[in-house]
Each structure stands twice: as structure tokens, then as C-alpha cells.
Amino acid sequence: MKLCLLLAFVWLAISFALPTSAQQTNTPDPQLREKLIAAIKEHTDALDKNDAAAVAANFTKHGILVTPGGTIFGREAIEKYYTDVFKQIHLSNNLAPVDEDSPHMTTDGKQMWATGSWTATIKGQNFGPVDAKGHWSVIREGDDWNIRMLTFNQTPPPAATPSPTASPSNQ
Amino acid sequence: MKIRSLLTIAVLAISFAVPVFAQQTSAPDPQLREQFVAFCKKFDEVWNSNDQAAWAALFTDDAIEVTHTEPVYGRAALQKLWADLQLNFSNHITTLDQYSPHVIDAAGNEVWMNAKYSLTVKGQNFGPVEQKGNLCAILVRDRDSWKMRMFTWNITPKPAATPSPTASPSNQ
What we know:
The structure holds two protein chains of two kinds. By secondary structure, chain A is an alpha+beta fold. Chain A has four helices and seven strands; from the N terminus they run H-H-H-E-E-H-E-E-E-E-E. Chain A starts with a helix and ends in a 19-residue tail after the last strand. In chain B, strands 1, 2, 3, 4, 5, 6 and 7 form a seven-stranded mixed beta sheet that branches. Chain B starts with a helix and ends in a 19-residue tail after the last strand. The chains are: A alpha+beta, B alpha+beta. The interface between A and B is large, with 80 and 82 residues.
């Protein structure tokens, strides 16, 4: 059995075991939530335009982006990352709804953190378009609530059902 | 080409574009960093022990874990999640990034951190397989220890398999 199929089983095992969400204890400030939603829209609009500089402008100077492939430190490096990404793929239909209990203020009121989900359509030079989705968490700070740290993951697609005509090499 | 393969390619396209690190100025307090290096070691020990209660004890009552399928709220739900998975973990290694932890509040009772992880996982009907990725966490001080208030992780995709020359059209 191929490794990717095994990993798909792991993902599915985790996915199916997840309980229904419960115990959301935080009631966010409505105005702060509005500001967060507006800031996220700027981010997703920049992603839809495939504009690396505009995406990076949503981060603080020392912002951190945690991707599945690694962690990128600093706005300048983040802009370079997206410049490279947009040479390979085109993003559209970016949405990033905020979880109901977000944002959360830190105790000193200088930072907020939030969680949510994302969806996007990805088209490469030789593939797609395909729909992708996942989840994220973010820490924001400053007058414009720019991103200090953003981590995202990707929901794996369902494991493919083995074709009855598949050759042994594909099992 | 199947959707799974397309998505793998898409994620790889994004992942491989990650550049060499740059531009970070704030060095963490050495003593605080020591605490978090120790926290990561404890985190690894708990994973490798497969002790679900000990794992849940690393979280606050109102913790949120952001998985790749949905957020999970509360320590009790997190412990149930692990129990329901029926997975066995080993070789868990967490490597704190060089700039972590980052202090949030003036009193130093809230911090956030980034790290890499790798592990081996075995299910009842599969594995063992190796997995790695990246994580972030917000932690709050709890007497002499730290507990996770928010925990997000991702999985680094495996390189796409080269299509077999004998593959049937249905598998392309």
C-alpha cells in the first residue's frame, strides 16, 4: 500500500474521530470582530489578485507565516514567498470566515488572536482548477491589526476508492 | 488526473516555494526559552507515552485545537479526540524555532511559539508511517508550568508519486 494512501487513512481517522464542536466560551467584542473581518477581506482580496506585495502588506514587518512546507520570517521574505507561489499557481475565490468565538484579546489588549477556516480555488500551469480548504489561526497587532503570525493547514481530500481496474502497482 | 493528485501538486507548489528564512530581530529571553525547550521535551514525552490524560493536561480548560478539519473546543473534547483516534504515536520530536517564545503581555504570563514536529503514527489497520509539519501555540502560565490555550498544526505533504507506466487510465 502506498505511503500517500496510508497518510490518507491517518487523516481520515482524525477527521472521523472529531467530536462536534462544543464549549465555545469566548464572546468577542462585535466592533473588534468587524475590524478583524475587514482586515481579513483585505488579505483575501490581495490573494484573489495574486498580488504578492499586497498580501505581504497585511503582515507586520516581522510577521511570521507558518505554511505546511515551512515557516517564513519577515514581511520581505513573505512577499518573496508569494511572488514565487504566484509564478506557479493562480488563486481565486479566497474566503476566510472567522470562527464564532473569535477574536480573543490578549490580557494587555495589544494583540488579538483568532481562528477560522479558508477555501480557495487553485489553478496551476498544468492542473486545475481545484478547490482547496483548511483552517487557520492568527495573531494580529498594531493600529491596523496587521498579522504578526499566521498558521494555516489544509484539509486532505477524501481518499480515492481503489479502481477495480487498477494495476497492482497502484495499490 | 485525480483531485487528490491535483491537490498534492498544489500544496507542493506552495510548500516548495518556501524561501530561506530572513529578517527576525527579537531574540527570546534565554531563561524563558529554556522553559519552552523543556515544555517541548515534555510535549514529546507525552505524545510518545500515548497517555491521553497527560496530553489533555497540557491544555487549558477552554483550549482550542485547530486541526485540518475543524477546531476542537475544550480539554475534555481534546482528550476524547485522542481516545477516539485509536492511534499509536512514537518518535515525536518538537523543535522550537529559534525566535520562540514570543512574550505577549507585560507580565510575561502569555506567550506564543512556533515549532516543527515529526512523528511516527500507527493505526489499527495501517502504518507505521512518518509524518511531519509545523505548529504554533499560545500558552498561558499556570503556576510553575505552561498550558496551551490555542494549538494549530499542519502536515507537510509528501512529494507526489511518479505515475506508474502501467497505470490504468482511471488512475491518472
